[in-house]
Amino acid sequence: MAQVSPHHDSPHLDGNSLAGPLSDLFAVDVTQAWWRCPGCGSTGPLAELHVYGPEPGLTARCAHCSQVALRLVRHEEHTWLTLGGAEGAFRFRTAR
Ligand SMILES: [Zn+2]
Hints:
By secondary structure, this protein is mainly β. The chain is built from 1 helix and 9 strands; from the N terminus they run E-E-H-E-E-E-E-E-E-E. The chain has a domain at 49-96.
């Protein structure tokens, strides 16, 4: 259902509208996902990223320029995911 945000005049949907599109994305073999580096412009499958860790979490970087592609931190209850070098993160319940 469209609602009006107090911060914007444009109507929007709530986050539940992402359930379908995101479940399509996260149900695939993520190593086959294609990644494009915002730092150097190189492209390739996720499997070609250089991954550092495991503590305090996994950090995947561009193999060419070391730009951060994603960070993944797993705790007992939750898994935090940050895409790119941006601030902010998504928290998921850790799969058991
Ligand atoms: Zn790069």
